Amino acid sequence: MDKTNNLIALFHESTDTAEAIDELHTLGIDDEKMVVITGVPYPHGALGRQVEWLTLPYIVAVGALAGFLFGLFLAVITPHLYRLDIGGHPPVGFPPAAIIIFVFTMMATIVSTFLGVLWEMNFPRFGPAPYHKLVTAGHLAVLLEYPATLDSQVRQVLESHKAHHIGEPERMAL
Amino acid sequence: MSKKLTRRDFIKIAAGATAATGLAPVARRIVIEPFVQPPEETLPGQATWYASTCRQCPAGCGIVVRTINGRAKKIEGNPLHPLNQGKLCARGQAGLQVLYNPDRLRNAVRQSGGRGSREYEPLYWSEALDLLAEKVSSLGHPDRMAFLGGLMPDHLYQLTNSLLTALGTAPPIIYDLQCTLEGRRPATQLSQTFFGTADLPVYDIAMSDVVFSFGANLFETWMSPVAQSVALGSMRQGKLSGRGLIVQFEPRLSATGASADEWIPVRPGAEGYVALAIGRIIVEERLGHVGSHRDNAVLYQNVDVREMSAASEVSVDTLRRLAQAFADADRAVAIPGGYLSGQHNGFASMLAVQALNRIVAQIGRQGGVFLSTPAPTVALRSKPEVNTLSDVRNLIKRMNAGEVDLLLIHGTNPLYELPAALGFAEAIKHVPYVVSFSPFVDETAVWADLILSDHTYLESWGYQVPSPGTDRPVISSQQPVVNPLYDTRSTAQVLIELAARLGGRAVEAIPWADEESYLQELVTELYGSSLGAFDARTPPGFWTLWRQYGGWWSEKEIRQEPETTDIVQKPLPMVDPQFDGDPEEYPFHLYPYSSVALTDGRGANQPWLQETPDPMTTVQWGIWVELNPQTAEELGVEDDDIVLVESPYGTLEVSVFVYPGIRPDVVAIPIGQGHQDYGRFAQAVTGSNPLALLAPITDPDTESLAWGATRVRLSPTGRKKKLARLESIDGQGRESIG
Amino acid sequence: MSEVQPTQPEQDNHPDQMPEFEERLLLAERKDWEINEAVLQPMFKTGRGFWILVAILSAIVLWGFYAWGYLIYWGMGTAGINRPVYWGLFITTFVFWVGISHAGTMISAVLRLLKADWRRPITRGAEAMTAFALMMAGLYPLIHLGRVWKFYWMIPYPNNRFMWPNFQSPLMWDMVAIFTYLIGSSLYLYLALIPDMAMARDYTEGWRYKLYRVLALGWRGTEAEWHKLHRALGIFSVAIIPIFLSVHSIVSWDFAVTIQPRWHSTIFAPYFVIGAVYSGLSALASILIIVRRSMRLQEFLRSEHFDSLGKLVMVAGMAWVYFWFAGFIVEWYGNEPIVRELIHEEVSGPLAPFFYLQMGANIIPIILLVFKRVRTTPVLLLGTTLLVNVGMFTERALIVIGSLQRNDLPFNWGTYRPSWVEISIVAMTFAGFALLYTLFSRIIPFVPVWEIKEGRLRYTLRRIGRLLVPTAAEIE
Amino acid sequence: MAKDANQSDEGIRWALVVDLDRCTGCQACVVACHAENNLQIVGEKEAAYGRWTHWIIIHRYWEGEYPNVKARFMPIMCQQCSEAPCEPVCPVFATYHNEEGLNAQIYNRCIGTRFCGSACPYKARVYNWFRPEFPEPLTEQLNPDVSVRTRGIMEKCTFCIQRIRRVEIDAQAEGRSPTDGEIQPACVQTCPTSALIFGDLNDPNSHVSQLAHSRRSFRLLPELGTDPGVIYLKGGEVNV
Q: According to DSSP H, which parts of chain D are helical?
């Protein structure tokens, strides 16, 4: 594909945004060329875009398993590494082991969830990125990448849906 | 550390607590001396055991002391010793803290700021001895010197005695509180009157089936508590003939009473009556298996059981039941204890009790009362005679009259141990020069100009013939188990050197070079005796064995059956008890008893003994007054309330311990606390000396202090002081809930 | 999102409903940036009062640390504990703080799962409370160690002795559980914070900008980010619930696994958990009321929130009474001597004052909270909820100290008096908690702005007869 | 590998028999214990607040009302339970069960949670509330075989394990095993009435195991199922 343009457009209101996005689709600009930035989480499909697939659940599952195994090691293996009898208890008892294993599993689950989601969003990322401060003030921003040839249609579509601040997206340090 | 020692072995050993981690800073400060010239018999790190004799009370138990690197670490009973058979009491165990007491005097001192100033300056022994010699020789007349002693080791007594006689001075006056409380003097006199000998009889508790103890706290402080406890053990569970029975007659349930099977709370002073009544019943009703009682009838001819019962507040049924039990037993023994002797009618009561043994024919019999055979040597026999209170009174009179210029005090602490009412504190001020031999600055030493601090018993030589003895002749040896810690000097040695300085008759009387050689000479008299449990080829060999065994004794039992004198031909005396203080004004009898741990107060400077709970009250450190719950209710006081105890002679403020085991008309206070001096641990306990309350009255028959014959009154102060109980008050002394 | 204009007539006819509507409509017609401002503004105002408060709290905390140093240097004896009361105020307060920490997840996780919409403005306050309470609780296992300088022996690491901690000991369970819960709740708090950090970043400069920028991790608010955030929060709220249940159960087992009379009980775990929720929710209510007042957040924390919170507290309270009774009746009926003794001590013995304080302070609030007036009047609600926590603290003290004072051998009974050291250290944790919370409220947007906006998306006002009724749509 | 405490019927199990019929409450054992095990002295104030450190204490129980009142003594020390409630609760294994049936307390390992103290139904454990103080030269009395415990450490009766080890090691050197009654903890050694007897409970011929089977024998709080290693013999009853 030859030279492409980048564009940012701000909307006041979600319905316009959604319609604009649809028309842009019809212009042949597909989803991954568009990024919608909002200050509020809009429900899935509200803006007419499909939901992307996440590896997060798998990361969590792996983390949980690791935690489980670590707990198992502590509760079941270590008592045998240095055997000491206590109060007529067997070296490994089910209830204490259950508690330890459970807790470590949960700990790992939590931590892996957190790290997992950061990894997925590849955070932290402080470098400059296309962004507009008005987003947090309630506007919806649409970032577009499209072939230069479509420039006029795109601008026209956007304006027709009350978009403003249309122009080169400014990359600001985040 | 060998490779085989794995980590967990290490932990195991740590469980044996030999590892040094977790050691407290104090422990780190222990200096381990480099053995440049190692003391003989000492291997670094290896324990050496030395046999000696315990001097914490007059009983004379054999001890062995575990020493490591020349430091005594643990005292245990000497297993070979016939008297205590390896056992030891709390006081004996605490002996280390006499030796290592932080408040010991570390050399001879002179009181620089004048008497009572408690400012001391150390003296070289040569100076000190010159000073003493100068004082002695400058006496106008030998009578103007007096020696007041406690119950000292036999050899020291002999030295002192011979030195004083040589100088033409009166023999030492022996008086201390322990002897008074256990009634040593009256007991001797009883033995004298009954058996015609001064030896104290042995009551064969071990073999006896029924023991009637009249105010004898057998397992606490009376006479030879360890030996008696050992006997109790075998009497209770050690005999084939079944479990023996003990009945305790006393107004307060002592720990002994608690161990007894029955406690009869007799009215104070009426114990004799009970004995008489029991005797009367036995004789009258021909109880028991001794056949005819005809020749005993005279003893009880004017005893009326009902009167006695009324006077002693013991029901006739009980008396009859007890008489039955006593007479029917195969072996029974009645013991006249210390509390009896502490009464105005003490001697009469003791006679009545001893008579019981006579009428059931237990004298000289197994499980009855017998005399211990003396050692085969004359020299070793003479032992300190306890003086009467009258002797002490006279001394005080002489001191007040200024007839005493030089007073030597050893092994006793009259300012603490005498009833304040006798005025010793005042009298001592009239003595120009006072010399004390105490290793500690006790109440009396404070009033001494010169303190020639003695060794503690673990540092000194000596021997002792236990009295009362045991079923065989015994002489306990005493030897230093460690080198003297400080620049102190044994009094015997001091006397020898004094004699040397005085020259003349003195040095002839005690010519020995030093204490040890003197002892060797005495002891080796035993050499070659056929009785001994060991014998040596040479006298020096004997001397060594004597020290290794911890004394000399016969290997087999030799009991001695006493002859009863004609005392038993006339009616037993019946003397009404007298008490000091008007019953209206002073409603309660005061019962000052000797504390198990502190005895007469000697133990008060030993933290182990202070922290040891009293068996009955479980109180540590403190001093208290025991009230019957009913009495407490009437006074409107409860546990830990401070009451004011007043006698005609003094007052005392002390916390209340509500004590179920005491007569409502009696209040009991433990003796031993309330020291003004005598070291940090003794002074740590607030409260004053109960002897301040005592009336200075004596039993006319024995002229010994009737310490149980004072009346007091109590009044609440509204204040509280929490006693350091082991027991929880909320627990109400229950064994289990519900 | 629909912006419905208020219509005059209703207002005239229903003066009493006016404030309710006013606020809702207000929020409804607020612009996003206005909401941002409304939340951020109070954070920037730190007046004299604020600094005085901070100073006082810091002073108490410093004094507490002095007391702790004193305790460590001179030994446990400087605390009021003795034999047999080996545990005293420290463990009591420990249990109390762990209890307080339970409201956070209760609100944010459970209610998020249940999609209870009224939770939105209070979640952050709740989560913060959890985190801080746990920090305070976490101090006590250290404080009550006789040799705190050896605390690391409880940490499972391969050491030179090849010795591991004893995982059969409830104290180990405690340690790991509380650690897990602390991590969990902190991450949970932080995760939900990121978008608001970005928001704050866009509105500030200076040190705050730097801070928020770092905390925002470069959040922009792309759909993908929102989506992932939602998923993560979803997993969190599921995962953290079993943790929050386990933590106080484990704390209860510290006591229940021993054979100490009255501790050795199977009901302890649920009893402790529900007690924790009860005290936690109450504490949350008290805190929200105070913050609302001091930071003028009336617009976000509205009476309807307190109304629902109050109801929740009431329910928890009832459950607590039920569990308490379930335990008590069994002990009472069983009539075991020592237990009888202990009950007697509480009902008519020396412990009676504390017992009745406990019962009163825990039951009266339940009755009060039945009335809407109490639930919706800040002052009354504050008083009531504070009362609950007095009660719960007393309850913990009775369980820990009351039981330890007695045991099977009456000879060994004892009594306990707290020392100045203990009191100072307990005061330190209360002050420390307050301090952390105060600073937090000035640095972190106290109200989760994005969640409110999200919630606002769902609002419409429907006219029912003469009423304007807010209705929330179910989306997602 | 250590033997499981559950099968404590083979190997050694040290036990102490306390004959209540002999005990006179004379406190000799208490002082002997202080001397042997370097217990600290706490003074009146602390003692009054339950901070004393006796490893063996003699309970005194009152029975009845005056004049028919009786007092009974019961020495109580660590019961060396097989199923010890104090052992599992320690987070750092500072107390465990050794293969001779002893409830061992490792001072070095203790971090002072006092959990064992709360868990012990006999309250036989004592705690070092402060640094021990031994004014010079009382330090000389300290037994070098036993470490002095610093503040913050839980301690209790060990059956004088250092004395057990001493005899065992000596016996080993002589290529024999300790004879019955050869091992004597300090309290047993000193007890004037021989109310305390020490020995191996698993050796059917030992004095203790025979006394343990006497009809007078009972254990403290048996309902708790702690299986104590201390066996009490009831005081005999004889009425005149």
A: 28-37, 43-48, 115-119, 161-173, 186-190, 207-212
B371-402 in b/e burial notation, b at 16+ Cβ within 10 A? bbbbbbbeebeebbebbbbebbbebbebbbee
Domains of chain B from N-terminus onward: 109-175+383-453+501-543 (3.40.50.740), 180-372 (3.40.228.10), 588-731 (2.40.40.20)
Cα-atom radius of gyration of chain D, to the nearest Å? 18
Token representation of residue B424: 């010793």
CB-CB under 8 Å, D224 with C259: yes
D187 reaches A (C-beta below 8 A): no
Amino acid letter at B648?
A: P
> What digits encode the pLDDT tens for the residues C148-162?
999 999 999 888 778
C25: pLDDT confidence band, cut at 50, 70 and 90?
low
- What domains, with CATH codes, occur in chain A? 4-52+127-173 (3.30.70.260), 58-120 (no CATH)
D128 CB neighbours in chain C (<8 A) are 75, 146
Contact (Cβ atoms closer than 8 angstroms) between residue C385 and residue C286: yes
Of B555, B65, B468, B58, which is closest to residue B228 (Cα–Cα)? B468
Q: Please tell me the total count of domains within chain D.
A: 1
Question: pLDDT, tens digit, for every residue of D84-122?
Answer: 999 999 999 999 999 899 999 999 999 999 999 999 999
Q: Locate the chain D residue with the closest alpha carbon to B106.
A: D137
Q: With 60 as the cut, is the pLDDT of residue D232 above it? A: yes
B-facing residues of D in 202-231 (CB < 8 A) are: none
Cα→Cα distances C91→C139, C152, C252, C346, Å: 11, 19, 11, 20
What residue spans of D38-85 are helical by DSSP H? 43-48
CB contact C163 to A (< 8 Å): yes
Contact, D198 vs D16, CB < 8 A? yes
* CA angle at B145 for the pair B498 and B103, rounded to the nearest 5°: 65
Domain extent listing, chain C: 1-30+446-476, 31-445
Taking phi over 0 as left and psi of -120 to 50 as alpha, with beta for the rest, C145 belongs to beta
Vertex D186 angle, CA D113 and B39, to 5°: 110
Q: For residues B103 and B441, is the Cβ–Cβ distance under 8 A?
A: yes
Q: How far apart are the first and last CA of chain A?
A: 30
Predicted structure pTM score: 0.91
**Residue D196 in contact with residue D218, Cβ under 8 Å?**
no
The number of beta carbons lying within 10 Å of the beta carbon of residue A110 is 27
Least confident interval from B517-531, C3-17, C459-473, D12-26: C3-17
Pick the CATH number of C31-445 from 3.30.420.10, 1.20.1630.10, 2.60.40.10, 1.10.10.10: 1.20.1630.10
Instruction: Confirm if B232 and B259 have CB atoms less than 8 A apart.
Output: yes
Please measure the distance between the N-terminal and C-terminal CA atoms of chain B and give it in whole angstroms: 56
Q: CB D96 to CB A83 under 8 A? A: no
Question: Which of left, alpha, beta for B628 (phi over 0: left; psi -120 to 50: alpha)?
Answer: beta
Q: Which of B63, B77, B353, B56 is nearest to B178 (CA)?
A: B56
- Are residues C424 and C63 in contact, defined by beta-carbon separation less than 8 angstroms? yes
DSSP state of B531: S
Rounded Cα distance between A50 and B385, Å, is 116
Q: What is the pLDDT of residue B46?
A: 80
- What domain range is D138 assigned to? 13-233
| Residue D195's CATH number | 3.30.70.20
3-state secondary structure of D155: strand
Q: Which residues of D touch A87 (CB under 8 A)?
A: 5, 81, 83-88, 97
Residues linked to residue B656 through DSSP beta bridges, in sequence order? B625
CB contact under 8 A, C412 and B728: yes
Beta-strand relationship, B406-410 and B433-436: parallel
- The answer on pLDDT for C461 being more than 80 is no
